[in-house]
Amino acid sequence: MRDPNAPPIRLLMVEDNPGDARLVRALLAEAGGFELSCAETMAQARDWLADNAADAVLLDLSLPDSHGLETIDRMRGLAPLAPVVVFTGLADEDVGVAAVKRGCQDYLVKGVGDGHLISRTVLYAIERKALEVERQQSAERMKKVLLQTVRAMSLTLEMRDPYTAGHQRRVANLAVAIGRAMGWSEHTLEGLQTGALIHDLGKINVPSDFLSRPGKLSDAAFGVVKSHAAVGAEIVDGIDFPWPVADMIRQHHERLDGSGYPLGLAGDAIIPEARVLAVADVVEAISSHRPYRPALGMDVALAEIRDHRGSRYDPQAVECCEKVIALEGEAVFGVAALGG
Ligand SMILES: [Fe+2]
Which residues are catalytic? Predict the structure, then answer.
C-alpha cells in the first residue's frame, strides 16, 4: 500500500488519441496519487522533459511523429532514468512483450483494467527501474574497484623494480590499441587490459638483482627469471576473473612456433590475448630503456615483430600493432586505454 502522505507520482502520458488520454486521466484521478501531464507527440514529450522530470512515462507506440519500437528508443534517449510503461492495443499484445524486451518496465493493454491496475503497474515499473539502476551502478562500481585493485597490484611490482616502472601500464595501453584494431569487444579488451597490467607479476619472486643486472645472465639466473610467467599465473589462479587472466600471464612469453616458454606452446594452443600481449610486450621492451642496455628505439622494435611475423608472433597482431604505431606513434603507450 502506498503511503498517503507520499508526494504524487509525476507521470507523463504520451498519447495522441484524445479519447484514450481522457479515459486514463479519469481512471487515474479515481485511483489517486498521480500528477499527470500529457503530450500528444514525441516532440511535445521532448519539450516537456526539457523542463520537467517524470517519475514514469506511459507511452503509446504509434504517435504522429514516431512509430513502433523505435518510439521506445527515442523515449529512453530523452529520459534514460524514467521507467516506461507501454500502451498496446488488444490486438497487439506481442508488441508489449517486445517492448519489455527492449527495456520497458511493463505494458498495459488499452481498455483493459481500471485505474488501480494502471496505478499498480506504474508503481511496480518504478520499483523495477530503481532496482535495475541500482544493480547497474553497483556493477560499475565493482568493475572500477577491480581495475583499481589490479592497478595497485601492478604498481606494487613496479615499485620494487624501478627499471621497468610503467612497463606493464604501457604494454596494457598498446595491447588494448592492438586488440581494438583487431575488432575485439569492449569486454575482451577489458580482460586484455587486466592481464597486461599484471603480466609480469611473477617477477615479485625473482631477486631484483637478476632483473636489473647489466650484461648476460647465467643459465640458472635466466631460468629463475623465466619462472615469472608461471609464478604470476599461479598468484592470480584463485581469482575468479571473468577473463582468462591467468592464461594470459602464463602464456605471454610463448611463441607461435613453439620456441617460447614456459610450456613451448604453439599456434592456437596460445590464447589470442596472450598472442597480442606478446607483441605489445616485445615492442615496449625493445623500444624502451632497460638496465642492461639503452633504448633500442621503435624501428628496432618494429623490425623484430615484422621479421618474425607468423613464426614467433601472430601475423594479425603484428599487422595491427604496426597500424596503431604508424597512426599514433609512441603516444599509444601513454593513452589511458580504458577508464576506471
Ligand atoms: Fe614477462
Answer: 203
